[in-house]
Amino acid sequence: xxxxxxxxxxxxxxxxxxxxxxxxxxxxxxxxxxxxxxxxxxxxxxxxxxxxxxxxxxxxxxxxxxxxxxxxxxxxxxxxxxxxxxxxxxxxxxxxxxxxxxxxxxxxxxxxxxxxxxxxxxxxxxxxxxxxxxxxxxxxxxxxxxxxxxxxxxxxxxxxxxxxxxxxxxxxxxxxxxxxxxxxxxxxxxxxxxxxxxxxxxxxxxxxxxxxxxxxxxxxxxxxxxxxxxxxxxxxxxxxxxxxxxxxxxxxxxxxxxxxxxxxxxxx
Length: 268
Fold this sequence. Notes:
The protein is an alpha+beta fold. The protein has helices at residues 15-30, 52-61, 88-97, 167-170, 258-267; strands at residues 6-11, 34-36, 45-50, 69-73, 101-114, 118-123, 126-131, 137-143, 146-153, 155-159, 182-188, 203-206, 211-215, 223-227, 230-233, 237-253. A hairpin with a 3-residue loop joins strand 5 and strand 6 (118-123). The chain is elongated.
């Protein structure tokens, strides 16, 4: 085990990201830090270079590590990626001085039970229940075993506070501040009829509650579960339980105003 201060550099493969990774590696080494492009479990920090997609992939590929993350944005939106390549020197100096706060990012857990077994997923932004090949789905939705609705439509998004500014926001959901322990259910093209009564807007659910979704019997093989953009198909789904995960990931924050500034610059 090294006694040095190891920093993981996780970059996507586009040209700007690779160029930034090389520059970052040199600057970290100049400050006496040890840059590692191979993921080192003894590192004290993960620096992810790219856009939000690169950030999400880095967390999933490395099994939701407890090592904190910070992002350098070379993508388009970069809501997770708060540092620009031009700010690398300032970022390193502030990091070495401890001039930052570490904030936790809530995750969503899903237990997908079929007739034969249960499968477990964890999402950073959202877990979506929708129809295979864009078919309409019919779902019974419960909150803590209380029946909420008989949903009919394209599907349901269950998002975390961090994910509320992603797919959820595009679908008309609310923006939720990242430190609020909650989940949000947002309908995708809901249909209301005499048979199905679907909420037209999102609902914010307390973090300690269990969201249970049951497909109608004839639709149990027509359900697609999408975890942060990754699709999973299970045969014979009986129920899907979604909860705020007891685990978190961690991200460095260099400004108390960063969230609101980011929100304005990205969306307004």
